Amino acid sequence: MRDTPSALSFHMPQPLDYHALFSALPQPCLLIDRSLAIADANHAFLHLSGRTSAIFGMPLREGFPSNPLASESTDLAALTASVAHVLASGQPHSVVALRCAIPRRATLGVVFDERLWHVVHTPLFGFEGAVTHVAQTVVDVTDITIAQQEPGNADDRLREGMMAARMAVWDMDLTTGALVFSDNATALFGRDWDSQEAMWKSLHPDDVRRLHVARLKAVEERGEYHEVVRLIREDGQGFMWLNVKGRVLCNPDGVPVAIQGVSVDITERMRAEQDLRDADRRKDEFLAMLAHELRNPLAPISAAAQLLKMPALNPEMVRKTSEVISRQVSHMTSLVDDLLDVSRVTRGLIALDRKRLCVTDIVADAVEQVRPLINRRHQDLAVKLPQDIVEVDGDQKRLVQVLTNLLNNAAKYTPAGGQLEISVTPSGPDVTISISDNGIGIPHTLLPHVFDLFTQAERTPDRSQGGLGLGLALVRSLAALHGGRVTATSDGKDHGSMFSVHLPRIVEAPDVSGAAARAPVSRRGDRRLRLLVVDDNRDAAEMLGAFMESAGHEVAIEYEPYQAMERARLAPPDVCLLDIGLPGMDGNQLARCLRRMPQMAETTLIAVTGYGKEFDRDTSIAAGFDYYFVKPADSVALVALLDRIDAI
Ligand code: ADP
Asked: pTM value?
């Protein structure tokens, strides 16, 4: 029952109880008077709006409050404007989605629900024909509005699905030739077509006839057709591949009238298929080459076996033959090792033995391994290391393998006498190790694929050093396992190449004890000393040279005393590290000769010798040596000595 008399009851004709009817209506209704106060409301309205009859007599703005925490959660402005419009014009007016904050009792007090109402305001006229009240009827449209706005809407979903599948649908009128594409055609293909003829012009001429024939046949048989055609790109840069399917539609008399179809962009798939075909071809080429590479060493091994069968073979011949076998077997072993490594990396079977590593040590190890090849090819290797210790978290063996591969390639693909360089540059959180050469370079066409498995430049007869095309693929995978990457640049044929390995480095303050242990490898002096290492034991000379290089010095190596003198004459070094037991002229004699050269007056001579007993220290000092080290020389002490010399 109502609590207060309604203004409406005064105007209701009798005997029907219109007020009872108003109250009982299932449609929410509200009555507003000319002063914009709430005159009455039925049960349905009070229920919908979460209010009580206490709102009767209240101004609109009090009866329709906003959520105190969200101003304008009730759009009072739109509400009053609509009512005012009806009062002034005497015409109904509606608000399509009026925001309305609905109070609701909750455990922690009153909370507000935000709803959307479709509101219709209708004028009620008094006896004089003027508008006395405005009746408001309400439909809550919150759910339907949200449903319409949701992206899950069926039409939207279909449209998005078609875009994701890169598919457009079309209808073709067979009588007029008119063609209508779905509205995503421009987004997919860069343009739209309205006729069959226009479409033909956009296709590759070789495909037009095939499509035409398939279509005619389908029309004749009242069936379907399916063709893959090339669409010329709008910018003229190549093609898009389309998978076109059409189905012929007939009228009730069985006469073909239209074709309904779908065109799908399958360019990505075609590209992937082409890549697979290329990879398959490369694999075939690789197998042929592998067979060739593995058979090559077999010829000398089998000849050696025959030779060993010969009677009266002298010991020298046996030694040489056995060396041939060892060399060839070690070549085969390295090929097989590479193959196994690649297979392990591709199957994810390589586990890194990670440690805190000094990049200089890794470089020194790699240089040491490749030095024999570099020397054989009379190439010059510059090693550029930073002043500070740069550390990475990695697997020593694998990182050395990465650099050895790159350095080995640099030496292989650079003519004899060429220039190689390895440099270490810390930058931000990374360190870049670059290996460059002034060799045969890499053609632009090969460059993007140079890290792919089995990729190799054209093999020429003089390219005898080429391996199996596995090395760079391994380099890339191993760098990636360390969280790094590799890049390659080249200005093309005969313009050299540069490969860079970028690795994350350890940037926090280094471990003091570790740093101290490694300190001798990094250079403390300011000046890069020119060193000449002379030793007939190539391995010993190269190891010492690599160590000194990694300590930041410029190193030249000679294996023979007369060559050493010649080099000293042409380019006098700051320091000579001389072995004593040299062929032809011993180290003491060499020291005397060097001392007689005017350009060697300032040079420091250091003896590094295994002859601790035979050639004593005094003899060497008398010959002109400044310092004397017994093999195996303590490299750390040697570097420390060079630092002192540097400071003089
Ligand atoms: P390979 O066993 O043939 O050396 P890699 O994977 O190490 O295999 O190298 C792949 C190819 O990349 C080589 O065959 C060569 O054509 C090219 N390449 C690699 N390094 C260099 C370089 N420093 N200079 C020129 N070409 C290079």
From this structure: 0.46
Class of domain 530-647: alpha beta
Structure tokens given for 619: 């003899």
Q: In the structure, what pLDDT confidence band is assigned to residue 4 with cuts at 50, 70 and 90?
A: very low
How many angstroms separate the alpha carbon of residue 640 from the centre of ligand 1?
Answer: 39
Mean pLDDT of 498-507: 94
**Gap from CA of 413 to ligand 1 centroid (Å):** 7
Which homologous superfamily does the CATH classification assign to the domain defined by 354-515? Histidine kinase-like ATPase, C-terminal domain (3.30.565.10)
Query: Distances in Å between the alpha carbon of 166 and those of 174, 247, 264, 267, 268?
Result: 26, 19, 6, 10, 10
> Which of 420, 456, 464 for a ligand 1 pocket mutation test, highest count of atoms within 8 Å of Cβ?
456
* Residue corresponding to tokens 């024999």: 372
Does ligand 1 lie within 6 Å of residue 470's CB atom?
Answer: yes
> From ligand 1's centre to the CA of 552, what distance in Å?
28
Q: Is the CB of 500 under 6 A from ligand 1?
A: no
Q: Which CATH class is domain 164-265?
A: alpha beta
Cβ of 447 below 6 Å from ligand 1:
no
- Alpha-carbon dihedral 396, 402, 407, 409, rounded to 10 degrees: 150
Q: Where in the chain is CATH 3.40.50.2300? A: 530-647
Domain with CATH 3.30.565.10 in the chain: 354-515
Residue with tokens 């090849």: 373
pLDDT-based confidence at residue 230 (cuts at 50, 70, 90) = very high
**Poorest-pLDDT segment among 216-220, 486-490, 614-618, 628-632:** 614-618
What pLDDT is attached to residue 647?
A: 53
Give the residue-averaged pLDDT of 429-437: 96
Q: Which architecture characterizes domain 8-149 according to CATH?
A: 2-Layer Sandwich (3.30)
Across the strands, what pairs with 55?
none
- CATH 1.10.287.130 for the 273-345 domain, yes or no: yes
469 CA from centroid of ligand 1 (Å): 7
Quick check: helix, strand or coil at residue 113?
A: strand
How far, in Å, CA of 558 to CA of 566, rounded? 10
